[in-house]
Amino acid sequence: MSLSSQKSKANGAPMNGSSEKWVYSFAAGASDGSAEMRNLLGGKGANLAEMSNMGLPVPPGFTITTDLCTYYYANSETYPDALDGQVEAALKAIEADVGAVFGDTDNPLLVSVRSGARASMPGMMDTVLNLGLNDVTVAGLAERSGDARFAFDSYRRFIQMYSDVVLGVDHYMFEEVLEQHKLDNGLILDTDLSADDWRSIVAQYKAIVERELNMPFPQDPREQLWGAIGAVFGSWINQRAVTYRRLQNIPAEWGTAVNVQAMVFGNMGDDCATGVAFTRDPSTGENIFYGEYLVNAQGEDVVAGIRTPQHLTIAGKERNGSDLPAMEEVMPDVFKQLAGVRETLEAHYKDMQDIEFTVQSNKLYILQTRSGKRTAAAAVRIAVEMVADGLISQPDAILRVEPGQLDQLLHPRLDPDAARNVLSKGLPASPGAASGQIVLSADLAEDLARKGEDVILVRIETSPEDINGMHAAQGILTTRGGMTSHAAVVARGMGRPCVAGAGEINVDYDKGQVRVGDRTLAAGDQITIDGATGEIIDGKVPTIEPDLSDDFAKLMEWADGIRRLKVRTNAETPVDARTARDFGAEGIGLCRTEHMFFDPERIVAVRRMILAEDVTGRRAALDELLPYQRQDFVELFTIMSGLPVTIRLLDPPLHEFLPKSDEEIREVARAAGSDLAMMQDRAVQLYESNPMLGHRGCRLGITYPEIYEIQARAIFEAAVLVAKDSDETVLPEIMIPLAATRKEIDILKERIDQVAEAVFSESGSRVAYQVGTMIELPRAALRAGEIAESAEFFSFGTNDLTQTTFGISRDDASNFLNDYAHQGIIDVDPFVSIDVDGVGELVSIAAERGRATRADIKLGICGEHGGDPASVKFCDRSGLDYVSCSPYRVPIARLAAAQASVEADG
Amino acid sequence: MSLSSQKSKANGAPMNGSSEKWVYSFAAGASDGSAEMRNLLGGKGANLAEMSNMGLPVPPGFTITTDLCTYYYANSETYPDALDGQVEAALKAIEADVGAVFGDTDNPLLVSVRSGARASMPGMMDTVLNLGLNDVTVAGLAERSGDARFAFDSYRRFIQMYSDVVLGVDHYMFEEVLEQHKLDNGLILDTDLSADDWRSIVAQYKAIVERELNMPFPQDPREQLWGAIGAVFGSWINQRAVTYRRLQNIPAEWGTAVNVQAMVFGNMGDDCATGVAFTRDPSTGENIFYGEYLVNAQGEDVVAGIRTPQHLTIAGKERNGSDLPAMEEVMPDVFKQLAGVRETLEAHYKDMQDIEFTVQSNKLYILQTRSGKRTAAAAVRIAVEMVADGLISQPDAILRVEPGQLDQLLHPRLDPDAARNVLSKGLPASPGAASGQIVLSADLAEDLARKGEDVILVRIETSPEDINGMHAAQGILTTRGGMTSHAAVVARGMGRPCVAGAGEINVDYDKGQVRVGDRTLAAGDQITIDGATGEIIDGKVPTIEPDLSDDFAKLMEWADGIRRLKVRTNAETPVDARTARDFGAEGIGLCRTEHMFFDPERIVAVRRMILAEDVTGRRAALDELLPYQRQDFVELFTIMSGLPVTIRLLDPPLHEFLPKSDEEIREVARAAGSDLAMMQDRAVQLYESNPMLGHRGCRLGITYPEIYEIQARAIFEAAVLVAKDSDETVLPEIMIPLAATRKEIDILKERIDQVAEAVFSESGSRVAYQVGTMIELPRAALRAGEIAESAEFFSFGTNDLTQTTFGISRDDASNFLNDYAHQGIIDVDPFVSIDVDGVGELVSIAAERGRATRADIKLGICGEHGGDPASVKFCDRSGLDYVSCSPYRVPIARLAAAQASVEADG
């Protein structure tokens, strides 16, 4: 049944849902579904079914499938006829299990309604608790629980949540009523309120709904239930969900399931509790039981981060210097049972689990389990340790670490020897360190980041509306909430450093100020946060290179053992080349020679070259540059000895080297001893309307042969020098940029070969070398068959290839690319992750045609995509030989390449 | 044998030439070759063979094949071993036929050596006459001819020509000697010189060679012969030839043949002559015998245009008001024989022939025949009349007219009612009229033309070195030479108006002046030339539309009957639309709505729209534009009633509409009532580094939906209005520019459909319409399959597609495209004629994928290529439905489309 329903989904939503099974029940010990049915039941539903099958104490319930969501949107937001009957039957099963009846006056069954998509989307979907309460059943609940205060508190929570999520009444109206009631009655905490207080508030809440919507708050539990189910499906297309899916690359077609489950209460007294547990430490990966709980609280209180939660274990409490008692102390029996669940679930799922539980009257209920989000360090450690424990295989371990996450491990951390003016301290919620200006709103953070500024997003607490800003910020600081608060969870997932719950800090949004003690900082002031220690530091603090763990080394060793794709680096400075080699780069895939021209010592000669009126003048200036260029290559060849070094000849249009401001122009004219007017003339002459499509790349080599000749000479002279002094082979690969035709390569290769022969005969020794080309224009990709007759290797310049294939200039794209993302035209920025359908097809065409001509042609990629895991996997599928990326991305590419191999074998 | 040798050529040059036939003999009545062997023998050689076979009086000779040229360049400029023997045998055959011996002291055989490529390349290849003369044989020639003056004149001509062409000694040195000799001896004309004068000059010429080359002038006739053969092959790759081939799209691989032929002399006295004859008038196409000759002159004298030649016929003489006697009068018998040859050749070749002849001692020799170059008017008339005469079929006639040449007929001519301040008159050498500034050098003409200026190239006479400048000029004026001079022949071929031989005009290159009587014009002054009358007119003269002949109408009717491809026009003004419809356009293929925005009445509203801070402001400004846009479309729909009108929504980046200069910005700020600073801010905000790849095309429609909505509303309101008033169908096709994804079309099409429904419901009537897209990005071409799910038609925007596929901005390409052409990287400017291998493949891919999704999708092309004959033929081969081009190019496209059909059927 599940198979056929998945099949029908793949073929589009069925138009006639009468024979389909839309509802899957679960109850401790038995359920219709299983963990394998994640696509159909969503992650939460599948795991509830699985845990029920395992006999864990799961409150009974049922899951409405993701297929129903698809059906709903394919059929003008209507349900199939069969749904109603299936829901009724499933509800009956819960009633039978729990021994309560939905809507019953004396013994009412209450349920929660939650979304549950295939992929975990924390905080993104709406939840309704305590559903089934109304003016009549609340009395029944009060009676049966013997706690009228609890019953009316539950009812007011339900009205508020349901009104907000299902009916669209702003929650602040309810909060105002509550605040006013407290003020009027001299009450401070929610726990100070009595049953009568809550009863009065419930009446006012209902009045708000009636006023706002011109209709009473729905009293019929079935109306409530269908309203909530509709709201879950509706929330699948709300802006927050759409944004999250876009950022996480989740297709809208997946849909969400709806989980309806009997309520259990963590807030019925001090023998009740609710909490979140991780089977290992999600921050470090250490194999300890980790988590937080709150006594006498309802489910969402822990995650929302409003009350500061307590630790599960005594060890955890001590480690964090907390005064609050651990669950291990307060509820030792229940804790023991929970510890047993920890063992069972991890052994079963063979992965670190994130578990939600509730204790009702000393009875443990498990509400959810899922793979726990973790830091990169934790991911690495858990993967490696699980292999050591025999839980998973090496290839499994390789797949367990998200390559992009490694960024967290590889980036610099604060220099421990640097002075730190520590302003305050919060929880070390997500590792890494960052400096930036204080920004108090997510939107502004996004704007400033787009302008290239480093920002630290500072908020009292974060909510899903802040996701864009969190993504844009270098780091996140909150003054409320714990290690499992929204800010902490999301920041860890994104790899942003985060300090959470820094309670000494006072944020004043209106004044745009942040106060710590008697110190006041303004928005725009620089601060630094250290996600490893929780410190908040005044100003900018210098950073040092990261120390990589042994686990990391082991994982990378496994990755290297399994991957087919080689990983090189894009580097032109000795520092970058050395860093990359330390990170495991297997050569240089792209050395951009123009970067070497901007050195202050050389730029004058470069400008003289550009300003020269004829070839003699150009050659004279170039001759001055020759020793510098040669020395550049000597260093690179030495650092990379034994490995290939691909050097791209001059690529950018010459005007990029000219000064921009009038003052600068004057200065250069003086320094170069040239006429100001002539300088300006030349700048005008070199001006281009579309420099990206202008006189650049090999077009420079064709029109000014002397430029490439000097560069080739510098390369060959350096290669000969280094080869003489070294036992290792020097492997220069000369790369011609921006070719569109075979003839360009023919002409330039001939000249390069002539220079090589000249240098070899002058020096009396030879080195082997190759001449190849970038494939970065659609025409070059299409004509790759004939270009390969001349070129000995191809390196795909996917930045330019994306620009030309899409007709989008990277420099100008920000004007519309955001709109494109919001309107769902692009799933992911094509400059970040390769556009497989368009640019990718050109890469495949070129690879195929190039190989048809020259079977052993070396194929690589050297655009920024070389460090993007999805793009690396595409390169592996396309049969390229290597990727080349920035030094810090080398380990990421190595791991992504290994995953590609594992996935290809799987 | 010829077949196998052609086959070997197709497979590359043979490496071993021993068994190959390299030399083909011809002699009146019998020859090895024929007209069919043009590829192997070149045009001249094949026709010499053919005429020999026909029994025409052709001096005997032989042709060395084009295969030999290919062999020569494939084998490091060496000949196969077998060649020498074959040449010797062929030489023997000539000796036997003529009764003279090559190198013989008493009775020396003299030969001419000429190039002969497959395609006629007038004036581009070098020729050597009188070869075989040396210090000894010249005496023999003097003796046998009884004319020592003739013999030494011939010898000095030979030395000068051979030294220039074969030995590389500059010809001016020889001219100086001759001038000096005349001055010293008080002689004026060459004919004043005696045998002794020539003898003395020969001695001086030989001394020049010895001085310059440090070796004596070669005396061995066989050394001379091989030197000349090598020079012919060498000239195949000289700059002039390369340039000509580039301009005419002739592949370098074709190679040239060498023709060695017994000399006949038109300069042995007054019973000798030489001339050029056309079987019909090459200017008008009239079926009259047309040509010029010179008494007592050698071959090249007529073509070189140094002496003013006389007419062949009495009618010709009278028609041109010449005083000089016609050949018909002077040599009636020979003329009669020549007239017979005219009949024979035209009947045989079934095309107008251009014949070179020489009369030696009253005996007629035919030295060459070839298809005559002709004006467009002549081409049309000849083709149509030859069909009427039953000589050729209608499809033949269609192939006989070069579509690009029609330009000459379609462009305006001088308004006959306009005042003309006629400065002087020359020969009406090539029809059409042009105005422009006087430019005295070809290089400057090219430079100025590149900057968009109209120039008239004014020269005493032109030479092949001037071809670039002639191509760049609007018109050509020479002060020397006749209707068959270099200037005249080349100008007709290029379709440039030309007035030749305007002897009253004096050109002073040094002073940069042109003098006519007492009037002095400076370079830079405006003049007008009328190629139809030969008038040279002061200043600029207004022009009127061309009158098209009945022959033209008939030919176009045949073309329309045979072509498959439809022809539309690119037009946005009523004038253009009407012109195009008159020229036979079958609808509008591209209406660029932005052109309508530049109208002074509207530009302020456009700028207000751009400057608006929000959608409300933008919408207000757009509402103002709506009535204008609607009226635009009312006019276009009315003019094109019954035919489809494709309207492209706004395409260029918004900053194109903003004023550029500070003063203009201030003015607009005032007019628009907006703040200057804000205006400048907005201009900065809209600035793009690469606008071609920027925020333009449908990206505007995505980010500013209201712009496309207003445009759609204008279109639908206009369509409804016109449909109400007309019996004809209104067929609007709305075209979305610059799409890269299907989703863009989905979103915009939905909005357009909504606007349509709104307008239809407001007006109570409906019109049928289509929504389609431009395919102008490589990604769109690749994703055409899915784009066709939404788009109802594709129009290939090959301008942009060329820019992105090649990565070349049209605005910036001139910086390197010339170098690219000179270095043979591109054969033809890809913006002029579609790059079939690159851009063409994308067009084919898109056509195929689009049709696979939507079998009846309409496919067209609307880039500038739509009016380029080669590109039109490519579109036909690719199965497109229509091409769209500028109004004046419509007939060209119709004819090219018909040729494509004929060629496809053939």
What proportion of the residues of chain A form beta strands (DSSP E)? 15-25%
Largest interface: A-B, 48 and 48 residues
First CA to last CA of chain A: what distance? 26 Å
Oligomer: homodimer
The SS-based structural class of chain A is alpha/beta
Mean pLDDT over the full residue set of chain A: 89
**What is the gyration radius of chain A calculated from CA atoms?**
32 Å
- State the major sheet of chain A: 8 strands, mixed
Describe the structure.
The structure is a homodimer of 906-residue chains. In chain A, 46% of the residues lie in helices and 17% in strands. Chain A is an alpha/beta fold and 906 residues long. The first copy, chain A, has an eight-stranded mixed β-sheet with strand order 15-25-24-17-18-19-20-16. In chain A, strands 27-28-29-30-31-32-33-34 form an eight-stranded parallel barrel, surrounded by seven helices. In chain A, strand 18, helix 19 (467-472) and strand 19 (475-478) form a beta-alpha-beta unit. Chains A and B meet through helix 27, helix 29, helix 30, helix 32 and helix 33 of A and helix 27, helix 29, helix 30, helix 32 and helix 33 of B.
